[in-house]
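ok new one. same drill as before - structure tokens go in, u give me an amino acid for every spot. 441 of them this time. try not to just spam alanines like last time pls lmao
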């Protein structure tokens, strides 16, 4: 079977590479000629553990190819995945222009039956628009070619995307024809042989499932951050509370870690889009609106702690940041809490020095020379008035605290991810602040 993947960004490249890994012939398509040329030369546009090696291996075996021509990709192709971006519009709704453009390209170039599968995260009702766009282009050609449309949302965690695709919790497929179902069963057979379930449903339900899943995870994060803030006020320890509720099997211990808010390409965008979809149908998702509000405020929590410690004046202070990406194991800076913190620190007149193991190049592209970038985590501490930990990269978890204490002007640490223990930090001579714990006692 030959599969085409349109869109060679994060989702498209991971999807195409993983399909190739199980023996399927894959052609990845993108309109960005430079990106395609780089991929042909083995240059990967994103950081994802294990992806570069897998791309090189499957290119060498001839199972993974790249092109800018959708017509070329459709030759002898039965299934096309649309994995283009759906960025948020100003009102929070998902921008579907690229999804519809792919649909029209299919209608203009397809010669035989084609199953068009939407992999991008799209609002409920998108499949109808895709089907309409394809049919309109076929009608213009006077071509009578059968096709089906399906929804197959991705559930990939950045930093663990390869494992998530090859060993999925579940595979959700929305469709409305037997022929499409048989094709998807055949395509995903290598995965179901290992016991990973494919859940077939109607297309609208599949579209909703993706948004509901991400919104539920975002809700857990905002809920825990809200409780953490209350814990500080009443004198409770959020770390103990987390252990207490996480042992309840109905709640579980995932996504209940307090911090400085969620970011990335999925949660912020998907929460906004689902809220907007509900409003289109004259319904208010009150819980999700609160989730978004809590997350917005949470990104400033560490800034507020720093300002309180320095009596509201950090002008001329040097702030060291450890971590820039929105989470570990990725270089993704989209909606990253670090960007909010940096902007606030700069507005208050502080100088920011930062280090991240992977995201430095992306951060430099976004921030330019507005902050100082350091070569390693310890260089960032030189002459800094305090350390703010933003991203919980593994190498930050067990630093040499003797070096940290010597390099900082004073032993002052603000931990935005609660990766250190208050008693230990006090024993080491640090003034320490974290999330959800009253550290003043």
């Amino acid at each position: 079977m030959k599969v085409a993947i349109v869109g060679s960004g994060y989702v498209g490249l991971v999807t195409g590479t993983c399909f190739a890994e199980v023996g399927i012939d894959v052609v990845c398509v993108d309109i960005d000629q430079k990106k395609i040329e780089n991929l042909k030369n083995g240059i990967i546009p994103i950081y994802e553990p294990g992806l570069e090696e897998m791309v090189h291996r499957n290119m060498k075996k001839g199972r993974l190819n790249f092109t800018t021509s959708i017509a070329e990709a459709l030759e002898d192709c039965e299934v096309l995945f649309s994995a283009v971006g759906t960025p948020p519009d100003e009102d929070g709704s998902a921008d579907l222009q690229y999804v519809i453009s792919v649909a029209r390209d299919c209608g203009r170039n397809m010669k035989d039956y084609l199953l068009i599968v939407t992999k991008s995260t799209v609002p409920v009702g998108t499949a109808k628009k895709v089907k309409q766009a394809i049919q309109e282009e076929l009608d213009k050609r006077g071509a009578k070619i059968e096709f089906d449309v399906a929804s197959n949302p991705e559930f990939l965690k950045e930093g663990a995307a390869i494992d998530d695709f090859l060993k999925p919790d579940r595979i959700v497929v929305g469709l409305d024809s037997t022929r499409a179902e048989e094709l998807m069963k055949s395509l995903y057979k290598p995965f179901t042989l290992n016991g990973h379930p494919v859940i077939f449903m109607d297309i609208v339900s599949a579209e909703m499932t993706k948004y509901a899943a991400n919104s539920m995870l975002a809700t857990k994060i905002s809920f825990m951050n809200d409780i953490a803030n209350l814990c500080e006020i009443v004198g409770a320890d959020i770390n103990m509370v987390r252990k207490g509720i996480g042992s309840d099997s109905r709640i579980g211990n995932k996504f209940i870690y307090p911090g400085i808010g969620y970011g990335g390409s999925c949660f912020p965008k998907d929460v906004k889009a689902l809220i907007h979809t509900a409003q289109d149908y004259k319904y208010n998702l009150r819980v999700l609106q609160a989730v978004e509000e809590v997350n917005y405020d949470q990104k400033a929590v560490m800034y507020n702690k720093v300002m309180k410690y320095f009596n509201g004046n950090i002008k001329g202070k040097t702030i060291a940041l450890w971590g820039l990406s929105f989470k570990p194991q990725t270089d993704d800076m989209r909606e990253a809490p670090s960007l909010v913190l940096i902007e606030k620190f700069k507005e208050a007149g502080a100088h920011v020095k930062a280090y991240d193991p992977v995201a430095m190049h992306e951060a430099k592209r976004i921030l330019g020379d507005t902050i100082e970038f350091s070569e390693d985590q310890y260089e960032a501490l030189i002459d800094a008035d305090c350390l703010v930990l933003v991203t919980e990269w593994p190498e930050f978890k067990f630093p040499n605290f003797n070096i940290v204490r010597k390099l900082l002007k004073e032993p002052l640490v603000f931990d935005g991810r609660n990766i250190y223990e208050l008693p230990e930090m006090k024993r080491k001579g640090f003034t320490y602040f974290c999330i959800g714990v009253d550290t003043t006692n």
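The chain has three domains: 2-201, 211-297, 299-433. and btw DSSP finds 19 helices and 14 strands in the chain.
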